[in-house]
C-alpha cells in the first residue's frame, strides 16, 4: 500500500463514490415538477437521463490523459469543481439544465474511470474492500437521492433540491481537496518510474481482444440495468399495474444493490479465476432469468417483485465485479486507467443506445417480445465474454 497520502483519502473516496450517480439519478422522480415549472413536456426532458450516458461514452477515454496531465488527485478536484458548476447552473433555465447535465456527465465520466486507478495506486493489497466501499456509498446515495427528491420538491421546489445537490458536491470537493497537494509530489517522485512504465506500456488497448470482450461485458451489464429502468415501469403499467406501484420498483433496484456492492468486490479478489467464472455466471444467469420472465409479463405485484429481484441482484453484482476487474486484470495504475477508460467509453455507448433501441423496436413491432429475445441472446454472449476474460490472469 502506498502510505504517502492524505488522511482524508479514504473519506474522500467515500464521498466521491456518493456523487458518482446522485446528481442525475435523483432527477427522474421530479421531471414532472421541472417540466411544469419550465413550461415544457416531460418527454422533452427525457434526455436528462440519456445525456450523462452519452458523456460517459464520449469522455471516458480522455480520463487517463487528464490524470497524466494534472495527476490523479488534482484531476479529481477539477472534475468535482466542474460538476459543481454544472449542477448549480441547472436552476437558470431549460438550456442550462441540459448544459449543466452535460458538465456533470463529463465530470462523472472521469471519476468513473479514475477511481479504480486511485485504488490500484494507494491500496493494491485492498482492492476488494476499497472497491466495496465506494460502490456501496454510490448505491446508498443513489437510493436515498431517488427517495428524497419528490418529498423535498413537494415541500420546497425543484430548484431547492438542485441547490442541495450542489451543496453536497461542494462538500465532496472540500473533503477531497487535502488530497490534491499530493498530485505534484507523486508526479515528481515518479518521473523515472513513469518513463519506464510508458515505454513498457506503449500498448493500444483498442487492439486488445480481451479489452473488447470486457467492453462488450460492460455495455451489456449496463444495458441490463438501464433497459429495465427505462421501460420496466411502462411494461408493468401495460400489464395492469398502477403507475405508483410500478414506480416502487425503481427504488427497489437501488436497495437490492447495497449488500452486493458491499460483498462482491471483496469476495471476487479472494476467489480463483475458475470460481469467479462460476459465481459471476450464476449472478448473470439470474438477470437472464428475469428477462425471460418478461416474455410473458403478468400484472401482479409478486410477479414484478420477482422480476426486479432477479434482474436487480444480477446488475448489482455485475457492476462492482466490473470495477474490481479493471484493477485485477492489470499490473499498474496506468494500465488500470487505460483499460477502464476504453471499456467504459464503449460500454456506456452501448448502454445509451440500449434503452433507445429497445423502445424504438416497440414502435416497429408493437410488441416487446422481439427485442427481449435479442437482448437475451446478447446477455448469453456477455456471460461467454466474461468467462473468456477470466481465463487470463492479466489482460494488460
Task: Report what the structure shows.
It is a single chain. With 396 residues, this protein is mainly α. It contains 17 helices and no strands. Helix 6 runs antiparallel to helix 9 and helix 14 packs antiparallel against helix 15. The longest helix is centred in the last third of the chain and has 33 residues. The chain starts with 8 loop residues before the first helix and ends in a 6-residue tail after the last helix. The relative contact order is 0.14. About 4% of the residues have low confidence.
What is the strand and helix layout of this fold?
Blueprint: H1 9-18, H2 22-25, H3 31-38, H4 51-59, H5 63-70, H6 72-88, H7 94-122, H8 127-155, H9 158-180, H10 182-189, H11 191-200, H12 209-238, H13 243-270, H14 273-293, H15 301-328, H16 333-365, H17 369-390
Helix pairs in contact: 1-8, 1-9, 4-7, 4-16, 5-6, 5-7, 6-7, 6-9, 7-15, 7-16, 8-9, 8-13, 8-15, 12-13, 12-15, 12-16, 12-17, 13-15, 14-15, 14-17
Termini separation comes to: 21 Å
| Total of helices | 17
Overall geometry comes to: globular
Strands, count:
0
Percent range for β-strand residues: under 5%
What is the C-alpha radius of gyration, as a whole number of Å? 21 Å
- Return the average pLDDT rounded to an integer: 87
- Please provide the ordered H/E string of secondary-structure elements: HHHHHHHHHHHHHHHHH
Percent of residues in helical segments?
over 70%
Poorly predicted ranges? 188-201
Q: Class by helix and strand content?
A: mainly alpha
> Could you give a short account of the major beta sheet?
none
Amino acid at each position: 500500500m502506498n502510505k504517502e497520502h492524505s488522511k482524508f483519502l479514504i473519506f474522500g473516496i467515500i464521498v466521491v463514490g456518493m456523487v458518482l450517480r446522485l446528481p442525475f439519478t435523483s432527477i427522474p422522480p421530479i421531471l414532472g415538477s421541472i417540466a411544469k415549472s419550465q413550461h415544457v413536456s416531460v418527454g422533452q426532458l427525457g434526455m436528462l437521463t440519456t445525456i450523462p450516458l452519452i458523456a460517459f461514452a464520449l469522455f471516458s477515454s480522455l480520463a487517463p490523459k487528464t490524470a497524466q496531465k494534472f495527476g490523479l488527485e488534482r484531476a479529481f478536484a477539477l472534475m468535482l469543481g466542474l460538476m459543481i458548476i454544472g449542477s448549480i447552473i441547472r436552476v437558470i433555465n431549460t438550456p442550462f439544465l441540459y448544459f449543466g447535465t452535460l458538465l456533470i456527465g463529463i465530470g462523472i465520466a472521469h471519476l468513473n474511470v479514475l477511481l479504480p486507478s486511485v485504488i490500484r495506486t494507494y491500496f493494491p493489497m485492498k482492492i476488494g474492500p476499497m472497491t466495496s466501499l465506494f460502490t456501496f456509498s454510490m448505491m446508498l446515495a443513489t437510493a436515498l437521492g431517488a427517495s428524497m427528491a419528490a418529498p423535498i420538491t413537494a415541500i420546497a421546489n425543484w430548484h431547492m433540491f438542485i441547490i442541495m445537490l450542489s451543496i453536497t458536491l461542494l462538500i465532496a470537493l472540500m473533503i477531497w481537496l487535502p488530497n490534491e497537494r499530493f498530485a505534484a509530489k507523486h508526479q515528481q517522485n515518479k518521473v523515472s518510474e513513469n518513463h519506464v512504465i510508458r515505454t513498457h506500456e506503449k500498448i493500444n488497448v483498442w487492439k486488445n481482444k480481451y479489452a473488447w470482450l470486457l467492453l462488450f461485458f460492460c455495455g451489456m451489464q449496463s444495458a441490463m440495468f438501464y433497459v429495465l429502468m427505462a421501460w420496466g415501469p411502462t411494461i408493468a403499467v401495460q400489464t395492469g399495474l398502477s403507475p405508483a406501484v410500478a414506480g416502487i420498483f425503481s427504488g427497489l433496484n437501488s436497495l437490492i444493490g447495497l449488500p452486493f456492492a458491499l460483498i462482491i468486490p471483496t469476495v471476487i479478489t479472494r476467489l480463483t479465476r475458475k470460481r469467479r467464472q462460476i459465481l459471476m455466471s450464476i449472478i448473470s444467469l439470474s438477470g437472464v432469468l428475469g428477462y425471460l420472465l418478461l416474455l410473458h409479463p403478468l400484472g401482479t405485484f409478486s410477479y414484478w417483485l420477482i422480476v426486479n429481484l432477479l434482474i436487480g441482484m444480477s446488475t448489482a453484482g455485475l457492476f462492482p465485479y466490473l470495477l474490481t476487474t479493471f484493477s485485477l486484470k492489470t499490473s499498474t495504475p496506468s494500465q488500470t486507467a487505460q483499460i477502464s477508460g476504453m471499456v467504459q467509453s464503449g460500454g456506456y455507448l452501448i448502454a445509451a443506445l440500449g434503452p433507445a433501441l429497445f423502445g424504438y423496436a416497440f414502435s416497429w413491432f408493437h410488441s416487446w417480445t422481439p427485442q427481449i429475445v435479442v437482448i437475451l441472446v446478447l446477455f448469453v454472449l456477455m456471460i461467454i465474454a466474461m468467462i473468456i476474460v477470466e481465463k487470463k490472469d492479466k489482460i494488460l
